[in-house]
Amino acid sequence: MSENLNPCITCGACCAHFRVSFYWAEANDAGGCVPADLTEQLNLFMRNMRGTNSKTPRCVALEGEIGQCVSCTIYEDRPTPCRAFAQSGEDNVANPACDRARARYGLPPLFTPQLHAITESYVSAGASTASDHVQSPGL
């Protein structure tokens, strides 16, 4: 298994925490790529992904169990807010919204500046990290 495994495939918290609203023309019935049948009208100019505009949101395109194994059934055709949402720690920048969504489901934050600083100084000092010792079975 790759040590660079994207943590989003075992999370999915953002897809079940936020309303995903976007400009109506992103839907495929208006020339965009988001499947219109998975959206609902929010107002004159905006749509949202079905399932995300409720007290307990969960995007209709999310498959799997949050915190275990998830996937987006329309990943290549997802709307702009989904494309723009960065996991916490991407490019060494914390995303408090990601951390909030993860906390709602009892998942730890992916990144904290303090932890990043400690790890960087540890590695800079020549110490190995746990990932340096991961081996595939039978090797």
Characterize the structure shown.
Mean pLDDT is 84; it is low at 127-139. 19% of the residues lie in helices and 13% in strands. The protein has 139 residues and is α+β, with helices and mostly antiparallel strands. The radius of gyration is 18 Å and the shape is globular. The protein has one domain (8-128). A hairpin with a 4-residue loop joins strand 2 and strand 3. A three-stranded antiparallel β-sheet has the order 1-3-2, with no helix packed on it. A two-stranded antiparallel ribbon has the order 4-5.
List the helices and strands and how they pair.
Elements: E1 21-23, E2 39-41, E3 46-49, E4 62-65, E5 69-72, H1 80-84, H2 96-104, H3 113-124
Antiparallel strand pairs: 1-3, 2-3, 4-5
Q: Uncertain spans, ≥5 residues at pLDDT below 50?
A: 127-139
Task: Provide the helix percentage.
Answer: 10-25%
Tell me the fraction of residues in β-strands, as a range.
Answer: 5-15%
Number of strands: 5
Descriptive tags:
139 residues; alpha+beta; three-stranded antiparallel sheet; two-stranded antiparallel ribbon; 3 helices; 5 strands; globular; disordered C terminus; Zinc/iron-chelating domain-containing protein; Puta_zinc/iron-chelating_dom
